[in-house]
Amino acid sequence: MNFQLIGVNHNTAPVELRERLNIPGSRMAEALQRLVGHPGVDEGLILCTCNRVEILAQTRNGSSDLRSFLQAFFEMRVPELQPHLYEYHERDAIRHLFRVTSSLDSMVVGEPQILGQVKEAYATARAVGAVHSQLDQLLTRAFAVAKRVRTETAVGSSSVSVASVAVELAKKIFGSLNGKHVYLVGAGKMSELAARHLMAHGAASIFVANRTYERAARLAEKFGGQAIHFGELYETADRADIVITSTGSRRAIFRREHGELFLSRRKNRPMFFIDIAVPRDVDSQMNKLDGIFVYDIDDLQQAVAANTSDRRKEAARAEHIVDDEVDRFQARLQTRDVVPTIVSLQDHLENIRQAEIDRVRGRLGALSPEQELAIETLTRGIVSKIMHTPISTLKTAARESEATPMIDVVRRIFNLRDKEKRSAAPAEESAEESEDPS
Q1: Residues forming a β-bridge with 44
Q2: What is the dihedral angle through the alpha carbons of 32, 34, 36, 39, rounded to the nearest 10 degrees?
Q3: What is the pLDDT of residue 188?
């Protein structure tokens, strides 16, 4: 079990850094292929959302310099990243993944979007062959843990969310949402959720602009709104009181000059921008204009933090579930790890038994069926008694998280390492003696 995880999230890095680490979908396959080609990495997954960029790897020797991968791929110096990075190994990496997938590490604890994002990252990694064995088992278990947390706790039932906080902020700015117009720029799930909340609280109408017009039209139809061609964005955005933007643009699509234009057309009536994109869609200079109010994903995090006290008790229950599941998963892995050694030991002793019977058979003369059965029963009984203690010890060690050193001891005592090396050697090297690593 050699799991390793490194990353940044909304708690450790500002949005300015997170947007520099954002990997667009068009480059994800390339990033995954470079990750599994990185020294020491056998399998890998990259989770990239507006709130986090994390790399999960299964490594050959229990550790790989994933910092150098980040430095090379993003062309950033390690000192720039170091203060914001967290890194976990083995049990801690498993626990972190289970917490993330269960939405216990989210900006909004209990929000449902993260599970879908992890599943999407998993599907992408499997498609390019970056996940295939141990990570596959780990991620499959993570999804089951998330389901258990949802089923056994009410951690996701509270109304506190980015969408609900956006509504509260809008109310503070406008006093009332009755009759206000909403403009969606980008047709993502979170934008749709925020718009749904705003409409439920009295917003009058909705406009939707997306680079793919057909997608904008489908989303606008859900709200009885109007789809806008993306090329007409700047000519139409001033119609809205509230703009929710979440695109995949690599640079800001709303800049100071656009804000000045909108305000002049609106005769200085205020506009509220909810920017939930990473990289950000709205330039921070827009917030300096009187009458323009911009909240990015980090601003919303602070507002959410003040409204999450009701979830703490349920989150504590969920944390206990995660810890229990981490123990179970580790025990399962450790039990699985001892099986090859038990099988090798059984095969090794059985070969010795058969070889010794064959060696003395010529001196025993002709044997009756009863005598053959007696020899078979006697020798099998001896081998069984020899195997009992090491096998029981291995199984106990697996349950007590001490499997790895005990496996090593048994292999050395019975010379199983040397045997396994010889059986695994290529045919052309079969005449050579393998060295005993002990």
Answers
A1: 57
A2: -150
A3: 78
CATH of domain 162-307: 3.40.50.720
Structural class in CATH, domain 3-152: alpha beta
Instruction: Give the Cβ contact number of residue 381 at 10 Å.
Output: 10
Given the structure tokens 């990496």, which residue do they identify?
93
Report CA-CA distances (Å) from 160 to 107, 113, 307, 311: 11, 14, 7, 9
pLDDT reading at 170 higher than 90:
no
How does pLDDT run across 31-58, given as a tens digit for each residue? 999 999 999 999 999 999 988 999 999 9
User: Beta strands of 270-332 (E only): which ranges?
Assistant: 271-275, 292-295
Task: State the virtual CA torsion across 427, 430, 432, 437 in degrees, nearest 10.
Answer: 100
Beta strands 52-59 and 41-48, pairing class: antiparallel
Spans of all domains in the chain: 3-152, 162-307, 337-429
Q: Is 48 a catalytic residue?
A: no
Convert the pLDDT of each residue in 400-433 to its tens digit.
656 677 778 888 888 886 444 444 443 333 333 3
Q: Which residue has the tokens 């999450």?
A: 308
Active-site option among 50, 94, 167, 219: 50
Asked if the domains at 3-152 and 162-307 fall in one CATH topology, the answer is no
